[in-house]
Each structure stands twice: as structure tokens, then as C-alpha cells.
Amino acid sequence: VPKLAAARVPNSGAVVAGVAKGVGMIEPDMATLLVYLVTDADVPVKAIHAPFRRVVERTFNSLSVDTDTSTSDTCILLASGVAGPVDPDDFEAALGAVALSLVHQLARDGEGATKLLTVTVTEARDAGQAKRVAKSIVNSPLVKTAVHGGDPNWGRVVMAVGKCSDDLDISPAAVKVAFGDFEVYPSLLDESGLAKVAEVMAAGDVAVNVSLGCGAATATVYGCDLSDGYIRINADYTT
Amino acid sequence: VPKLAAARVPNSGAVVAGVAKGVGMIEPDMATLLVYLVTDADVPVKAIHAPFRRVVERTFNSLSVDTDTSTSDTCILLASGVAGPVDPDDFEAALGAVALSLVHQLARDGEGATKLLTVTVTEARDAGQAKRVAKSIVNSPLVKTAVHGGDPNWGRVVMAVGKCSDDLDISPAAVKVAFGDFEVYPSLLDESGLAKVAEVMAAGDVAVNVSLGCGAATATVYGCDLSDGYIRINADYTT
Predict the structure, then answer these.
(1) How far apart are CA A236 and CA B150, in angstroms?
(2) What is the pTM of this model?
């Protein structure tokens, strides 16, 4: 499926557009993910370098279809300048919107994927811990198969937090887990709450929100469920 | 499937026996893996602590069915002493043989598994690097699905080495990959070699051997293929 996105730079006539390719071997560490972003804004290389890296870090480098990193992941931004100069913050906002849209499209079109899985970790000690724990959850095959089966399995989410065993400042008593807006741990749901969570899990977009209760840092990462489609695509051919 | 193993302590009348349980949520970091080892040798706790940790490190802690770590992994050794004292090295050999046999049985009986996958990394800088790279290979879903499909996909093995991106001393030009005894990279196989490798990949035990060419350290880790059986077991129920 083609992945395309575009956004207007606020307060200007400039636009940012992007196209991306990739379905598997995707946990980029900027390298089989190819992304081309174009804009007509006049953005000097020096000025755009830092915002570009920030956007890539919180979008493409926060994406994992299958934990496997390609040797050819690429993200390139080309600017023609014909729309003239723009405010850097406005440009970063438009660039971020395009990149995020492409990441959503990439995750939904991941090999065998039937759902977009978004994992947000809040109240972490620092950004590194937040992203490490979020990646541990989004990459866990037990979490990914639970999402595929529509099972609100908070035990697997807590397991994926717990296996980040270097993060000894995470206290199990402080951790909270929600599927969408519904906390499922430590507070337990009644029958009507369970019915609502079942609806959350049956949707095409599933959000897992985890609070670590040990700081103020946050990270959001993107992935997909793990289905027999992934196995068939990757087991049934020879090279 | 029950997992049982026993070995005689060399040069003594003592035996070591073990029983283990567990099929998924298995990449122990000693926690759903339960292992009970028993012996009639007279082994004082002080003397057995270090060899026990060494054996656990190179057997149960070198096993990964699905990268997910349980909260209850347990390995216990009970000694009655009735067979009298034994040589510590002889005891460690017998303990190691029992533990390795249980690890092979655990990997072969992993959720959805149809094959035992053994990954050995040699010529690494140090033991930590050797184990990190070996775990990256044994845990890669693309390597695991290739093994399931019987595909000698050395490209996926090299990818799994490459994604250990903190190990900047690994030079792609120095890396060698073999399936069983057949080098598949960098030397390329002719038609008869390919037919032999196809046999290696079709067997119930598949060995992937990787030489990093940057040192003298070695590690061996144990896992299994990734099949649609794993998905069915873990997606098709609710908690």
C-alpha cells in the first residue's frame, strides 16, 4: 500500500509532503524503510538539521514492525525553497505531522498487521527509560499476539515492563496500565468496564498507556499486532 | 511435554537429575520457567554457588523461546549428600549436562516450535558481545521464520548481527556465517552445496554459526523457530 502524507506549514504558503515504503524488517535505527520528504519551503540545511533529527527520532525511530533493523533505512528531506522562508517551529510542526502520518501508515501496513498499536509511557525517570520500556512493550510477541486476539492482557504489558530489568527504579506498585482510556491495572474493571475495554481492543487502533510513577519523562512508540500473516510472509519462501 | 534429564557425576557414585517446565514467555533472566535439579552428591552450598551460577548462565539464561521474560523463572538445586563428596569440576560437568539437556527439551517444546535453533557466536571481542549478538540472532523474528520455512537466509542472520549497532568494532567484511558445517557467507555455495544446506535447514536441529572476526570470545544460545502455532496459542484466548 502506498504511504503518502502532506501538511501545510502554518503561517506560510509552504507545504511538506512525504512518501514512504516498507512493510517488514522495520525497527529503524536510521537504516528496508525508505522515506522521502519534500517541501517548497526555504529551509537552510543548518537550520533544519536539529528539527529534522528530532522529528525522525520521535516518529520513524519510534516505529517497530518486527524488531528487525534493515541495512538500508533512509529518510531524506528535499527543499526547493520556492515558497520562501518559514518559521522553524511552524516548519517542524508540519514536518512532524507528515512523519507521524507516514509512521501510522507504515505500522498499519506492516507484514501481517491488522492493527496499529501505539504505546505511550509516562512518568518515566528520563526519555531513554521511557522509550526503552515503550519499545519493550511494543516489541513483545506476547503483547502483540494479545492485541491481535483482542485480549486486554495487562499481565503481558506488566511483564514487558518488568523485563527491562536494568531499570531498577521501576516499582511494580507504582505502575499503572490503561488500554485506551480504561485503566486495567492496578484497578480492576467491573463487567461494564470489561465490555468497554473489549470494544477498545477490537478497534483497528489500539493504545496502550503505561505510567511508571518514577519521574516526568514520556515516550510514544508505534507498532502493530503479530499475526499468522507475518509467519506466512516470512517463512514460505526461499532466497 | 515433560522435560527430564539425569547425569552421573564422573569418578563418583553420585547423580544429578532435573525436571523443568515452561513453553512460552521464556527468555529467562532468572524468573514461567521452573527448573528443579536434585543430586545425591555431598556438595556444600558455598562450594556449589559459583559453578551453579556458571551453569545457569550458559544454559537456562542462554535460552529464548520468545524474548519475553516471566516473573516466576526459577532454578533450584537440592542436594541430599547421601552419595558423599565429589570433585567440584566433575560435579559442574554433570550439572551442566543435565541443564543443557533440559534447555534443548525446553526449546524444542517452545510454543509452536518445530525446531531447536542453536546459535553460536565465535571470535567476539568479549563474552558480553558474543552473547548479545547470539541473542539478537536467536530472537530475530525474521531469522526464526526463515528457520521455520527451512530457508538458508544468511542475509537475515547478517541483519541481526548488524542491528547490534552499539558494537561498532564488528566489521561486515570480517563476519562469516555458516548453517551447520556449511559456510554460506561470504563464500557462496554451488548447486551441490545448496542442496546440502537445504538438508541442514530441513532437520529438526538447526545450528547457525557466526564468526565476528574481532576477538576470541564465544557464546552459544538456544531457541526455536517461530510458527503460526505460536500465534494461535497466544492470540486465541482471553484472560
Answers:
(1) 9
(2) 0.79
Q: How confident is the model at residue B184 (pLDDT cuts 50, 70, 90)?
A: very high
- Reading the block at residue A11, the C-alpha cell is 503561517
Of A155, A231, A239, the CB nearest to B155: A239
Q: State yes or no: cis peptide before B88, omega within 30 of 0.
A: no
Check A159 against B70: CB less than 8 A apart: yes
Cell of B26: 521464556
Q: What is the DSSP string of B65-126?
A: SSSPPPS--EEEEEE--TT-B--HHHHHHHHHHHHHHHHHHHHHTSTT--SEEEEEEEEESS
* Residues 153-192 of chain B whose Cβ lies under 8 A from any Cβ of chain A: 153, 155-156, 159-160, 162-163, 165
Non-local (6+) Cβ contacts of A190 within 8 A are none
Q: Do A145 and B234 touch (CB under 8 A)?
A: yes
Task: Using CA coordinates, name the residue in chain B closest to A137.
Answer: B68
Cα dist from B29 to A159, B69, B101, B115, B122, whole Å: 12, 7, 19, 23, 23
What does the pLDDT read at residue B31?
46
Residue A25, min C-alpha distance to chain B (Å): 7
A7-16, A20-29, A227-236, B59-68: which range is least confident on average? Answer: A20-29
B-facing residues of A in 208-227 (CB < 8 A) are 226-227
- Chain B CB within 8 Å of residue A149 CB: yes
Confirm if B59 and B26 have CB atoms less than 8 A apart. no
CA distances from A170 to A18, B58, B71 (A): 38, 28, 14
* Section A21-31 average pLDDT: 58
What pLDDT digit, counting tens, does each position of B33-47 carry? 667 777 777 878 787
The rounded percent of chain A whose pLDDT value lies above 90 is 33
What does pLDDT average to over chain A? 83
Q: Report the gap between the CA of B198 and the closest CA in chain A (Å).
A: 10
Subunit contact B148:A231, Cβ cutoff 8 A? yes
A67 among known catalytic residues: no
Q: Chain A residue closest to B234 (CA)?
A: A145
At residue A143, the pLDDT reads: 94
Name every chain A residue with its beta carbon within 8 A of the beta carbon of B230: 141, 145, 231
